[in-house]
From TrEMBL:
GO MF term set: S-adenosyl-L-methionine binding; sequence-specific DNA binding; site-specific DNA-methyltransferase (adenine-specific) activity
Catalytic activity: a 2'-deoxyadenosine in DNA + S-adenosyl-L-methionine = an N(6)-methyl-2'-deoxyadenosine in DNA + S-adenosyl-L-homocysteine + H(+)
One GO term of the biological process aspect: DNA restriction-modification system
SUPFAM superfamilies, per database record: S-adenosyl-L-methionine-dependent methyltransferases
Protein name according to UniProt: site-specific DNA-methyltransferase (adenine-specific)
Pfam family, one: MethyltransfD12
Source organism of this protein record: marine sediment metagenome
Amino acid sequence: MNEINFIDNNIDDSEESIRRAFNFLLNHSRISEAFSKEEFKRVANYQNPKNFDTYFSKKFRHLLERAPNEKNKYLVAGGKRQLLSQIDLFLPKDIEAYVEPFVGGGALFFYLLPENAVLIDNNPVLINAYHVIKKSVDELIELLKLHKNEEEYYYTIRNVDRTKEFKKWSDVEKASRTIYLNKCCYNGLYRVNSKGQFNVPFGKYKNPNFCHEKNLRAVHEVLQNVEIIHDSFKKCVDYANENTFFYIDPPYIPLSKTSNFTSYTQENFTKENQIELKEVIDTLTSRGSKVMLSNSCHKSIMVLYEDYFINVVRAKRVINSKASKRGEIKEVLI
């Protein structure tokens, strides 16, 4: 069962504080579409915050059981796919411009398909793949068709970045390798060592679809009017204004000492980076931008963002190497 808990560190248990928190969601998110005016009036006037929270949670449980948006299903990928129905409730009512500074797999972008979008990521391998899909999809598809789902072949392709020859590869060849490795490696991870060399083992999947032509052509069409940038998250400040919505999905603060085993770039995302990101978000909001941040439900995140509305959601952990340790974990939408 999905669950959302509403947290606002700026409010106390008074009726006025509860009403103010609820009205914030009414005026700034799609939650208003889920409630009738009568329900708003009744819930916002609850005297007992515990009753308010109980009603609020029950209402969401019903809403989150709805079927997901089917129109973009074949486009949506990435780690946020399972949370889209929960994220959707907290999105702004209207999105004129969309900026995502940690685009990754772009699940929310492909779900929303905004007309005016900027996608940013500090991973040059990922950004190259997006550029190639946008500009050279036909050539890319032909190269993908040549790959094989064989373990020895996989390691040959994986380890080519250890050779001098790799520097001579074209952008299309490198993008083909990126997509192939993503589909055939263990759990679809993207992890590199300190030298920037891909080091995820073979996934041993029976029939991985590393040349999904229909999907690639659909993504190609969607990206035609999208600005794709290789840069740090700080670049997004250039686009800050009251008409822009920012979805920010950075590397999470690990919940345990052993959970931070994926590295999307050679440099780890440190605590100092998390603080710098908070400063960027403060700048965005000060300029009138609407911002949503995802992160782990960690005490340090709760403290760092104590001035913002925090919503706790549940997600399934699917990348743990031990199946017995995969299960629901708490994340936050801020």
